[in-house]
Predict the structure of Cohesin subunit SA.
Amino acid sequence: MIAEPNAATHLPGRKENAVHDETVPESAVQNGSCVRNGNLKTPREKRKVREQCENIRRNSSSRRRVSQLQNGEVVEAVTLFEVVSMGKRAMQSVVDDWVEAYKQDRNVALLDLINFFIQCSGCQGMVTAEMFQSLHKKDVMQKMTETFDEETGLQYKKFMAYPWILTVTWPVDMDNEDYPLIRTGPYWKKFKANFCEFIAVFVQQCQCSILYDSYLMDTVISLLTGLADSMVRAFRHTSTLAAMKLLTAVVSVHLNLDVNKHNAQRLYEVEKKRISGKRTNYRLDQLEKKRKEYEHKLLEIQNMMNAIFKRTFLNRYRDVIPEIRATCIEEIGSWIKTYPDAFLNDSYLKYMGWMLYDKQAEVRLKCLLGLQGIYSQKELVSRMDLFTSRFKDRIVSMPLDKDHEVAVQAMKLLMLMSQNCEDVLSAEDCEMLYQFVYTTHRPLAVAAGEFLYKRLLSHEGDEEVQPKGGGKFGASTDQLKRLIGFFLESELHKHVAYLIDSLWDWAGKFLKDWECMTTLLLKNAEEDGEALSDAHESALIEIILATVREAAEGHPPVGRGAAKKILSVKEKKIQLEDCTKITEHFIMVLPQLLAKYSTDAQKVANLLQIPQYYDLDVYSTGHLTKHLDALLREVKDIVAKHSDTSVLEASSRTYYILCNEEIAIYSQVDRARTQLIDELMGQLNQLLDGFWQKEEGFCMEAGEISQMHSALRRVAAFHNAHDLTKWNLYDKTSRLLVFEMEHERLPVLIILPALQCMYFSLLWQLAAVPENSPKETLFALRRELRCFSQICMCFLHHKKKDVREKAFMILCDWLLILSHQDSNNNTEAVGLPDYLLSTSLQEKLLLFIQEHVFMVEEEESKDLTEEKERKDESCKLDDLHKKRSLLAAYCKLIVYNVVKMTAAAEIYKYYVKTYNDFGDIIKETLSKTRHNNKIQSAKTLILCLQQLFQKHAESQDSSSSVDFSSASFTNMKELARRFSLTFGWDQVKSRESVAMIHKEGIEFAFQGATGVEGKCLPPNLSFLLIISEFSNKLLKSDKRLVYAYLQRYIAEPLPCRGDEWQPLIWYRNSLLANEDEESSVLSSSGEWSPAGTSKASFKRKFSNGSLPETSQTEATSKAPELQCASRLASAAGKSRKRLKSQEMHLQEHLPFLCPGGLQRKYCKDEIKTEAVSKESQAEDTAEDVDVDVVGPDQVILARVFQL
């Protein structure tokens, strides 16, 4: 049994005397810590004990040191902590050495073990022991304390570790949460593994000898229980981990004893039957004795398990530290799985169920992993009915967890529950879980794909039982139909690529059965009444395309996962084999499919994307050119039948893929392409000739408009991928568009494709310009470029919205391409520098964005039916998509410096107002521009806020002050706060940008402050409230710099007792935040004691509504001190390296210039600065981003404050 602290009076007298005789020696531990006996009174006794202790320690250390030298190790390990942390020896030999020492002198060995646990907690203090039986019961309870000694500055804890009361003393700085278990790096990870292994081996090696001596385990459990109740995280975490691992090891011992007990019981019964009727023999007595011995040991082990569980687990499974809670839950899952007879009941399972609701993802993850181990065993699931019914809803909801790993493991747990628990998941639960195959997080989607495949698509016996009429594809056909049915029911038809990717790891075999899929498509209803419906055929064609793409590319679809993964050699081999299989099959089948579905635009558009995944060499090596002729013939017929953009683009891309000059089939495909384009251009020329003939009496019929529209769209689709310059398409389309500019009589159906054709024609001409082209060619191209730009600018004001938007998109792309050509020093070929730098063009583009993107159209309230409401909602989504495209096109011009970055200020104004619709685009623009130029980007942000502030000020009554509670001012502050959040947590990285915002903001706030000695109220003073939102992004040293810069705009004395000066007070306080703590720490350490007024005095004066009144002499003397303080490290209280000081002149590094209209009196003052050495600067920056980065970096920051 484990002795309780209050059980002193029940100890046997003989045992007390024995323990008292074995005096506890005083032995030194690592770093000067020691263990002392509290019962030794006389100096003679103490000297005798000390001599014995030194001999024992010398012998023990020598034994460990010799073993290290025998293994060839240079490092000498003396203590258990050193041996375990180094991991140089086999753990079993380490434990064997300790067991041997325990048998010789158990008190010395136990104290060695106690010090091991203390040192593993990272404690570098002192351990003192005093005998338990020497104290009365009341004294024992008074000793169980943990407190702080103010006189010595040490913290100590007294607790019971039977038969001693231990006192652990350590410095206060141990609370910095730095101890072995949480340290990073491979060494400390290995230490944790060695620590856990030591405990497991310790119990394993002691189970046959000293584990049941009613002394060892009592002491260890009391020690760990006492440490687990500590307020110090290091003690609590380390001892809890040790206790949980100890209980895990004891459970294993219990299992072995249980098996041995049952074996002994069987042998006893067999022997008893064998000698029935006879006298009891010696063997039967031995078996009975052994059986009772096992029962006694089991009782001892059960007591140990109960003690650890009740004293440690029940207190620590709800600890405030998530690592401790996770450790407890992880181990209880191991106990339940290892020893279900004792732990698999609701009394223990409830803890795992409760912790499924934990706020920390780590704890929830350990719960799910533990439950997976239980639900994976069918024989255990039947005993969890109550737990399953109680916590099923919680588990079903956990795939929605914000932590991805928790969501994945929850889905895997539900998979196990579905397999091993009958009807535990309802149909509604399954339908909800199936939808996770469409999630963007691939591991979760793959887990959901396994759930979907095993639960819905794959049924046992599919391979053996062939459906009626299924033929050789019976099983695959059945699975395909179920997959198609699920896909159609989910109504997420545009996400088929995500669905296939989720199922690929589990259903790759039948998803690659393209022969079955195409056979199912080509099957006639007359031959088989089970032919697919039109919707099923469309879905199956999409599935075929998605499976072909997945097999050929070998990486997830766009939006799921990061960049393309690097394929292994095996994966590349499989990919090549799949590509060959795809080519050989679809070369013969695809023309048949195109012929069957030639009139269905959606199906044809999907089927025409398959050739891009062909291995084109198969055409020539396999002598399959006849199938190529069939494919080209079908594609030509499809182009003639359709005018749908998706079909025409897919057809054009098919010709582009097949027209590869390095492939043997190039000449054959090129002839077919030329023949097709000749026919298309002939049709277009015929229509244009008819149009120009009746130009004066222009009146096109609907049929003629449709024909012209179709012809232009076909030509535009092919001009996108093929060079049609020799057909002189530019002149034909430019004549049409110029006619529209003059008369505005062409329908939109003709204008849009004509504009697209003209754009593609110029792109091909621009790409074909050689480096040394004759001037005549360049002048002709320049003339065409100017003409096209004028047409696009004119169409920006067209009466039709579609034309305006198309012209804007083409113009943005066109300017971006020309700027790229200009950046490659090809200005002779480009021309148009006046258009690229034209202010009027930039203004027109910006005005277009404001009117077509950010202008909110008034909605008319109408009573619409449900169907009309659905159509109206669809139209709104399409309109939003167009607006996002327009805004993205314009933002690209800003990012790539085609237009001035200051133009982004007008865009940023709508960041908060349109956050749901355009927030991601604006935020990405802000990020890209900041990456290009930090300073200019910061100036753009502050310009945006300044413009809003000026507009707000103009709307206010000139006689009244600024209303801080108005909606416009509140919106400005919110916008500034959002801008501040975009700088992230790295204050060092963004210090220049934030400093520039404060500099520009201060100058704007005091702009126009004229009057007698500059004492009048600046008109923009309330702008300081706006830029105060950026104060928390300043480093502490930079706050002092900005504060010093602010002081130069403040004339003294100032009559600032009114509310109108509150913005200055608030802004100043935001710069002086956390200054009290710093000042107190620095003053106590003797590094800096302000000679003038402190921050507290500043606060008192500001609280009265007035600025501190100082004379010019005082201000001059305080300025150096303020700048000196700004160079001190913000982490002075964390025992960091001292900063060395050096003098620098203000005009050399911080040239603050006086603005006009203000009297600033400090421009010639010199200030003292302190720089950090290279080593200390690098160390401080790595330790804390809030450290004051000075020295060379101050020169960089000084550039911000140059005017």
About this structure: The first strand starts at residue 27 and ends at 28. The chain has a mean pLDDT of 77.
